[in-house]
Amino acid sequence: MSAGSALNEPFEDLGRQRLAARFGMWCFLASEILFFGSLFLCFLVYRQLHPNEMLAAGRETNIVFGSLNTAILLASSVTMAVADKAAEEGLRRDALRCLGLTAALGLAFLVVKGFEYREDVEKHLWPGPDFAFGDSPARLFYGFYWTMTGVHALHLTIGIATVALVMLRIRQGRLPFRDSATLPVLGLYWHLVDIVWIFLYPLLYLGGRAGGA
Length: 213
Known about the structure:
The structure is a single chain. This protein is an all-alpha fold. The chain has helices spanning 14-49, 51-58, 63-88, 92-122, 138-171, 182-212. It comes from Aureimonas endophytica.
């Protein structure tokens, strides 16, 4: 498609349109950083207040699942970056392949997380009446664990759905991906989801083990 087909009102040139799209996404990402940052801060405060119980609870997380999902998301960041670069170079087929890989890796993460959640429920690592640690402050750890990983999974699900929609529009010829700001903006969102997990991984999976070493 021509460059003009990618231009939307009220913008007069593609450069300003892309800049506005990126700025809007960065504003959104800033609000997400504030949200997750407040959760991280609260988690760290409670870990300082109840170090032994919180670290003991952390040692019950499945580090194999956590490490596998970390590798999966890191790989998805690479495929998303390559998709963005391919689109910039006008390589439609390569961009679609990398977007497909990105969505597939995102789904793989959710599948692995589903297995982990099932194991957690079977081990009563759910802050409910039959919680494995009783009324211990370890309940706080798993309150944060389920909240933060659940919200992260929701963000990832939105990202996967958006990637699938972008792929469909590119295949249908409805998205002038080479000149559009869609892929760069989508890439920013996807990388945020990955970065959030990079913080969750040491907080939830490594801290307890380091503390118990």
